[in-house]
Every structure is written in structure tokens, then in C-alpha cells.
Specification:
Order of helices and strands of chain B: HHHEHEEEHEHEHEHEHHHH
Largest interface: A-B, 29 and 31 residues
Strand order of the largest sheet of chain B: 4-2-5-1-6-7-8
Shape of chain B: globular
Number of strands of chain B: 8
Helix content of chain A: 40-55%
Radius of gyration of chain A: 13 Å
Order of helices and strands of chain A: EHEHEHEHEH
CATH architecture of one domain in chain B: 3-Layer(aba) Sandwich
Oligomer: heterodimer
Strand order of the largest sheet of chain A: 2-1-3-4-5
CATH superfamily of one domain in chain B: P-loop containing nucleotide triphosphate hydrolases
CATH class of one domain in chain B: Alpha Beta
């Protein structure tokens, strides 16, 4: 009975969690175990929580514009903690131009506003290890 | 990586992987637990339960911080329910404890209940043992007080605390059989709310009438966990109870009870799964259900027939 565990987190100084909560709910309804960690977190807090719960997926939501700094930092810290095979995905208000850079930094997919939640679920199912 | 060896050498990653192994019932889980068992039995286990929204997670966060101040390391197992419809879960206890991240003396694990055949008590118990072997001094198990297996988990802790809040019903609720009875400590959280004094009196009355409370009478503490108020007193009460258990020799008794309950649970899980696989999920069983529906058979004869076949 190996359930997929997803950590949903909002790094940085941004209190808008409606999107993250909608995604968390959709992931639960898809049968995932969702660890919801809330707002205004540091990358270190997120990576440590991901380690303790040994999650398969880290889903980051960010609307403040600091994604280019904070998303890759989470990926780095996960690696430093020995958490291999964690699927890191991101969402929020993220300009198209930034997406290739984020993907190169290890964010496997970036979901922008208007994405149906089913697409996120399908992506996780297809890519989780 | 060698999970057992690394865990005993304080690798947090190994602890996380070890818990995953028991939670997901990986092939190496039995081996891990077998090797770890001699290294367990040192941690003090605290169970925290209460209705949803009582403030258990916030309280757990506060208690963990207080124990850190006192130089103890703390493991936390936070349990939330699995949705019976999707099999998914929202594990939201951690949100109240994010400020504990970054402290090497703390390790928190979220756990979903995963349905009746999931063997929750066994898995939570194994998670506690893994944290114990890792070297945590105090381990807190936190769960909503609904469902038998959740109650069983906290019931087998060394000290069990029930968290209540004002405004959840009259004193008849308090004397109904239920989770209040299992508390070695009662904490009234959100004690700045209206109804706190009345609730306190009702709790006192309930305890007053319990003949079991001759040697240890559960203290009633008041807290406002969100502001950290009263937490120090709660931890003092836990430590007083700890001392009482040691001095009276009851600690060994409780721990023996826990082992008994754990082993019984493990047997039950094994038997239930056998029945699920070999009886319930068979075409014969479907046919039997159809015959029961049309009243060709009656339930008692069917059960006698099946149980007779399984338990010779």
C-alpha cells in the first residue's frame, strides 16, 4: 500500500494560498496523501519537512515573483539532504520566459494560472517515482 | 544505504526511510523492525487526542518547544484521517509546527489512517519505535479522537492527554463514555473563550465521580495554545504523571499493556487481511451475498459456515 505523498508549500513572502489549497484538495481527491504546510516558508523549512515525511512530490506555489530564487533553492536543499527521486513541480504567476530556466534548475513542470487541476494530477501520476 | 545502521547513527534520512518502509509495508520493513526492537523502550511516549479543531497540533508544537527548552529531543507522529471516498488525505498538522523545522532535536512525521485494513496502530507504533531507536527522548503521538484505532494508539501511550474546548456541548457530553475517560491529563484549550469556567466545573464533576482516580487524579490545565499560554504548566503536569508512574511502578504495567495491545493488533491485522483476501474477495462470497439478498440464506448460518472453514 504505497500511497503517493505530496508536500504542498508556499515559499517566500506571499500569503495568497487559495490556489495552493485548491490544488491540495484536488490532489487529495485524486487519492494522494497531501501534506499541506502553509504560507511564508523558507526553502530550508520546506526541504526539511519533505525529508521528514519522505514525500514523493514537492509542489511549490508562488505568486510573489521570487520563483527564480526560491524554487531552485528547494531543489538544491533536497539534493543536499539526500532526497533523490523527489518530483518538484511549481505553480503560480510565473512568466513564460522564466519556465525554461526553472526546468533547467530541476523543476520538472510549471503550471500557470488557468491550468485544470486534472493536468497536475495526470502529470504527477505519469512522472512520480 | 543501510537503514538500521544509519538510523542508529542518527541519520534523519534513514529515520524517514525506515518509517516509509513500515508505512508502505515494503519487504525490508520486518527486518528493520526486528533489528531495531532491542534499541527501543527508552523514550517517553505522550498521546494527545481530542475533537477536531481543539488545537492539538498547536498544543503539540508548544509542548515540543517546552521540552526542547528542557534539553529533551522530541519525535512527533501526527495522524490525520484518510478520505473514505478517494483514499487520499490532507495531512495538515504540520502547518502548526513549521517553526520547528531546522531544529535537529525534532522530527515530525505525518501519517494518514489509510482505512480499516491499513493496520494504523501497528504502523504508528512502529514509527514511535523507530524514533525511539533514533534516540528521541520524548515522542508525542497526536490524533483526532474518533475511530477505535486512533483511540487505541493514544490509549497505549505512557501519558495520555485529552484536549477539550468550551462550547462543544453540555455536561451530558462529558459523562458519555468516550475519549475523556482515557485522559491522564485534561487540558482546556482556547481558555479565553466563553464557557471555560463552566467546562472546568463539568470536567471536575466528571473526575470527582470516577472511582479509579484515587491514586492519580487527572489535573485540569487551561491553555491558550496559539499564544503559548499555559503550556509550561501542561508539561509540568506530564512530568508529574511520569513521576507518579515511575514511583508507583505503574509505568512497567502500562508498557506491558502496550506490548500486549500491539501484538494483539498485529495478529488481528494479519487475520483480517487473510479473511479479506481469501473470503471476502472471492466469487463465492459474491454469490453468497446475492443469496442473502434474496433470503435464500440467512446471515448466521453463512457466518458459521465461513468461520468454521477458516478457524478449524
Amino acid at each position: 500500500m504505497a500511497n503517493v505523498k505530496v508536500l504542498v508549500a508556499k515559499p517566500g513572502l506571499d500569503g495568497h494560498d487559495r490556489g495552493a489549497k485548491v490544488v491540495a484538495r484536488a490532489l487529495r481527491d485524486a487519492g494522494f496523501e497531501v501534506i499541506y504546510t502553509g504560507i511564508r516558508l523558507t526553502p530550508e523549512q520546506i526541504a526539511e519537512a519533505a525529508l521528514q515525511d519522505d514525500v514523493n512530490v514537492v509542489a511549490l506555489s508562488l505568486l510573489s515573483g521570487a520563483h527564480n530564487t526560491l524554487f531552485p533553492k528547494v531543489v538544491e536543499l533536497l539534493k543536499a539532504k539526500g532526497m533523490k527521486n523527489v518530483l518538484v513541480i511549481g505553480g503560480g504567476v510565473i512568466p513564460e520566459a522564466d519556465i525554461p530556466g526553472l526546468k533547467a534548475a530541476g523543476i520538472k513542470e510549471v503550471f500557470t494560472p488557468g491550468t485544470p487541476t486534472t493536468k497536475v494530477v495526470e502529470f504527477i501520476k505519469a512522472n512520480v517515482k | 544505504m543501510n537503514i538500521v545502521e544509519d538510523l542508529l547513527n542518527h541519520s534523519r534520512l534513514a529515520l524517514a526511510k525506515g518509517i516509509t518502509a513500515v508505512e508502505n509495508e515494503y519487504d525490508n520493513a520486518v527486518e528493520i523492525m526486528t533489528k531495531i526492537y532491542p534499541h527501543t523502550g527508552n523514550a517517553y511516549v505522550i498521546g494527545i487526542t481530542g475533537p477536531p479543531g481543539a488545537g492539538k497540533s498547536t498544543m503539540t508544537d508548544g509542548i515540543a518547544k517546552e521540552y526542547r527548552k528542557r534539553g529533551k529531543t522530541v519525535g512527533i507522529v501526527a495522524i490525520d484521517p484518510t478520505s473514505p471516498y478517494s483514499g487520499g488525505a490532507i495531512l495538515g498538522d504540520r502547518i502548526r509546527m513549521m517553526d520547528l523545522m531546522g531544529d535537529d532535536g525534532i522530527f515530525i512525521r505525518s501519517m494518514a489512517t489509510r482505512g480499516s485494513l491499513g493496520g494504523l496502530s501497528q504502523k504508528a507504533g512502529d514509527a514511535v519505535k523507530l524514533m525511539d531507536a533514533f534516540g528521541m527522548d520524548v515522542i508525542i503521538v497526536e490524533t483526532v479522537g474518533v475511530g477505535q484505532s486512533e483511540v487505541d494508539i493514544v490509549k497505549t501511550a505512557d501519558t495520555t492527554m485529552v484536549v477539550v474546548i468550551p462550547g462543544m456541548g453540555d455536561d451530558i457530553q462529558a459523562i458519555k463514555a468516550g475519549i475523556l475517560e482515557i485522559g491522564d491529563l485534561i487540558t482546556i484549550n482556547k481558555a479565553d473563550r466563553e464557557g471555560t469556567d463552566k467546562l472546568n466545573i463539568e470536567m471536575e464533576m466528571m473526575l470527582e465521580l470516577n472511582p479509579e482516580h484515587v491514586q492519580w487524579r487527572p489535573p485540569i490545565n487551561r491553555t491558550i495554545a496559539s499564544r503559548g499560554e499555559g503550556i509550561e504548566e501542561v508539561v509540568n503536569s506530564i512530568e508529574e504523571h511520569h513521576k507518579y508512574l515511575v514511583d508507583s511502578g505503574k509505568l512497567a504495567e502500562i508498557r506491558k499493556k502496550r506490548i500486549k495491545s500491539e501484538i494483539t493488533d498485529m495478529i488481528n491485522v494479519r487475520v483480517n487481511r487473510y479473511i479479506d483476501k481469501n473470503v471476502v474477495r472471492t466469487p463465492d462470497f459474491e454469490k453468497t451475498v446475492t443469496k442473502l439478498q434474496s433470503r435464500e440464506l440467512d446471515p448466521y448460518s453463512v457466518v458459521d459456515g465461513i468461520v468454521g472453514k477458516v478457524l478449524k
